[in-house]
Amino acid sequence: MNKLLMHTCCGPCSIYCVKKLKELGYEFELLWYNINIHPYIEYVMRRDTLINLYKDTDVHVNVLDVYGLVEYLRNVVNKESERCEYCYTARLRKTAEYAKKNGFTSFTTTLLISPYQNHELLKKIGQDIAKEYGLEFVYIDFREGFKEGQITARELGLYMQKYCGCIYSEQERYLKKKI
User: Fold this and answer.
1) Phi, psi (5° rounding) for residue 2?
2) Of 168, 164, 167, nearest to 46 (Cα)?
3) What CATH class does 3-178 carry?
4) Which of 19, 100, 166, 176 is deepest in the core (most CB within 10 A)?
5) pLDDT, position 178
6) Cβ atoms within 10 A of the Cβ of 11, count?
7) Percentage of the chain surpassing pLDDT 90?
8) Residue 99 pLDDT more than 60?
9) Residues 52-69, mean pLDDT to the nearest whole number
10) Closest CA to 167 of 75, 99, 91, 96
11) What pLDDT is attached to residue 120?
């Protein structure tokens, strides 16, 4: 049977994705690996929200607990316009590595629920990495469920982040408020 590993950026974004994968009949698990998230307290809040969301359910959450700010910054400083490409690649590559090592046949990501992410770039990177690892990248446009997932997350009282996660998106968040 095909086993899917879904890279998961946070609890709120996972809600609709998990629902959709179940509706589609996938056997799947989640993977937490997010080296881009800053500051550390934000990283912890997102990680723990995800873990707690699924702790008493049939959804298994695998955690690669790596606060990777230094690695992330070393790879994007002076290349800020390419930061999303690096971030997608680093997280999807680690997901593929974990999938291959642990008997999964395919992978995807909750990033595909966000209307703020570059879906074409995510899809291309996912497909390229999948080919490299002999896996399948499952592209599902989860955006139709973005609002539903957000509403459910609020109803559940989940921690809701206000930016993508990286230090640059946090800065952009505050600069937009100022303008």
Assistant:
1) -70, 130
2) 164
3) alpha beta
4) 166
5) 55
6) 29
7) 82
8) yes
9) 97
10) 75
11) 97
* Domain locations along the chain: 3-178
Asked if 31 and 64 count as a contact pair (C-beta separation under 8 A), the reply is: yes
165 contacts 9 by C-beta, under 8 angstroms: yes
The contacts found for 66-69 with CB under 8 angstroms, 24 or more apart, are 66/33, 66/35, 67/35, 67/37, 67/40, 67/43, 68/35, 68/36, 69/35, 69/38, 69/40, 69/167
Q: Is residue 168 scored above 80 in pLDDT?
A: no
Q: How many residues are present in the chain?
A: 179
Tell me: pLDDT of 144 over 80. yes
Q: Which residue has the tokens 């899917």?
A: 4
CA pair distance 133, 114, nearest whole angstrom: 25
Residues 6+ apart with CB under 8 A from 104: 3, 4, 5, 29, 98, 135
Say whether pLDDT at 179 is over 90. Answer: no
